[in-house]
């Protein structure tokens, strides 16, 4: 089989995706390619991509350090750079004995708040924290990495910081402006996530970006960094603030929960949870946020084990910048950016949002 042919087939599809503004590209053996645009998956008019071509592409492009994992596990994550097209995060896997590949386009330039069409005042305030842990949460494809990148982009243009990132793989590439970036990609710059985490505090960072808060060891490193004067950014797969907080405590065994409460209350600076809602006009999507700023009230609730009262705090009026999803969905509907139907569909409490839209608000 020609090496040029399978690479050419994939590169042609990736080029079309970039030119079309697609966020993701899906290859399923014996099917045409698919592009995700505006959150929707669309097939491409092309010949089906054979399993042989898909297999050959992965076998050739997977970095040497990951080849054994691909052979042993039948799935692998890596980064791929196509000349004059761009960089992509790649997940290759087997299904029903055939090879499938999913690409995520890695933007060469991080986005601004304006480009993401999100309100920036509270996020900028959070980005200026001197230390602690900031978590950006949401489901896969919710844009959490883009929001975090926009916050770091603002820091890069406005603050003098040394920023070290640990990513698997790199999502956005930053050029040094006022800040100095050191972006470490697992598999290319450091053999393992665990080794990168263990060494990051010796690299003299002001800010640490951890691509994903994946386990107890990662979170304990983040806490240690926060307690020694560093600001830590990371992401989590969680839909709401309440779910995010619950997930943090799931990292710890029952006998360590009391200690975990003290550590989380002391180090947490806030959660930003995000959903992408279809726009009414012109396609695209708007981000709806649920934000919790860990002020004194929040820290006391965490210390006392009253996690159940966090949602009440988000729903109540506050000048701290914290807000519930329903508050932001209400704003987006009233501003004519999203439809009422979509607002209710994405709301964690549609009955309450329906009452809000009728002008009825309940004090908590």
UniProtKB/TrEMBL annotation:
It holds the Pfam family T2SSE. Residues 201-215 form the Bacterial type II secretion system protein E domain. Gene3D superfamilies: 3.30.450.90, P-loop containing nucleotide triphosphate hydrolases (3.40.50.300). It comes from the Bacteria. Coiled coil: none annotated. Belongs to the GSP E family. This is Twitching mobility protein.
């Amino acid at each position: 089989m020609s090496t040029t042919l399978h690479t050419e087939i994939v590169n042609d599809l990736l080029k079309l995706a970039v030119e079309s503004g697609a966020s993701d590209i899906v290859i399923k053996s014996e099917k045409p390619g698919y592009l995700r645009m505006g959150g929707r998956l669309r097939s491409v008019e092309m010949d089906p991509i054979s399993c042989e071509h898909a297999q050959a592409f992965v076998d050739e492009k997977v970095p040497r350090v990951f080849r054994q994992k691909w052979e042993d596990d039948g799935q692998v994550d890596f980064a791929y750079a196509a000349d004059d097209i761009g960089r992509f995060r790649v997940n290759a896997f087997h299904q029903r004995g055939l090879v499938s590949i999913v690409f995520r386009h890695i933007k060469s330039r991080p986005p601004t708040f304006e480009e993401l069409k999100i309100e920036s005042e509270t996020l900028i305030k959070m980005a200026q924290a001197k230390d602690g842990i900031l978590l950006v949460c949401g489901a896969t494809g919710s844009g959490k990495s883009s929001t975090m990148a926009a916050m770091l982009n603002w820091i890069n243009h406005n603050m003098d910081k040394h920023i070290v990132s640990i990513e698997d793989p790199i999502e956005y590439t930053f050029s040094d402006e006022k800040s100095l970036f050191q972006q470490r990609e697992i598999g290319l710059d450091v053999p393992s996530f665990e080794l990168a985490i263990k060494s990051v505090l010796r690299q003299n960072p002001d800010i640490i970006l951890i691509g994903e808060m994946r386990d107890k060891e990662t979170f304990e490193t983040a806490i240690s960094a926060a307690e020694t004067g560093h600001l830590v950014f990371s992401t989590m797969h969680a839909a709401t603030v309440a779910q995010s907080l619950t997930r943090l405590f799931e990292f710890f065994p029952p006998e360590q929960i009391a200690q975990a409460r003290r550590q989380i209350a002391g180090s947490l600076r806030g959660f930003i949870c995000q959903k992408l809602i279809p726009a009414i006009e012109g396609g695209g999507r708007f981000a709806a946020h649920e934000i919790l700023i860990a002020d004194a009230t929040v820290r006391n609730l965490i210390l006392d084990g009253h996690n159940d009262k966090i949602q009440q705090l988000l729903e109540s009026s506050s000048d701290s910048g914290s807000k519930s999803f329903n508050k932001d969905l209400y704003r987006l509907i009233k501003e004519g950016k999203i439809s009422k139907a979509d607002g209710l569909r994405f709301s964690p409490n549609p009955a309450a949002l329906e009452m809000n839209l009728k002008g009825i608000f309940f004090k908590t």
